[in-house]
Amino acid sequence: KGIQAINTTLHTYYYSTWITLINDGDQEFITSDNPVIIAEESPTDPVFFVPVKPRLGLLIIPKIRADRLSKEFCKKYDNDKLDERAIVKPNKVKTLNKLMVQSAESTVLYHSEADWLGNLVAKYSKWCVEIVKSEMLVEDVKILISSQRRREKRD
After folding, report:
1. Is 124 within 8 Å of 102 (Cβ atoms)?
2. pLDDT greater than 60 at residue 79
3. 1, 103, 135 from 138: Cα distances, Å
4. Is the pLDDT assigned to residue 110 strictly greater than 80?
5. Which residues of 3-40 are buried (b: 16+ CB within 10 A; e: fewer)?
6. Closest Cα partner for 17 from 55, 77, 64?
7. Is 29 within 8 Å of 103 (Cβ atoms)?
8. What CA–CA distance (Å, rounded) separates 11 from 23?
9. Are 139 and 151 a contacting pair, CB within 8 Å?
10. CA separation for the pair 95, 27 (Å, rounded)
11. What pLDDT digit, counting tens, does each position of 114-124 carry?
């Protein structure tokens, strides 16, 4: 049963919905030394974001979540639905960049100098990613789950 649960999880991510986000707004995508971030948190099926270029990114939505995408979720990124490509809304680019800075270990990377970037890094440089461990019971089998959570660093 344990191996079957692992195979189910692997299958879920392998067959995830991968959406190309096209950024045609004023603010470019940035990246960091932790380039895969959780864009939408969930204990069992987080949505991941990976910036590929300043104007191109990938949104990875686990199959179990993609099967029940709501219009509200889709409107955060584009319009009524998410297809293989989506023009990402400028306010969502800002949110993804903030999450990228909060998730960085020590380095934020960017393509071109921008006034907003220094302020963003200064504001969120005291954040980090923390590993959170939890357990889930699937068909009488206990599965240990490690996930990430962003938090402000403690002094």
Report:
1. yes
2. no
3. 9, 30, 10
4. yes
5. eeeeeebeebeeebbebebebebebbbbbbebebbbbb
6. 64
7. no
8. 29
9. no
10. 11
11. 889 999 999 98
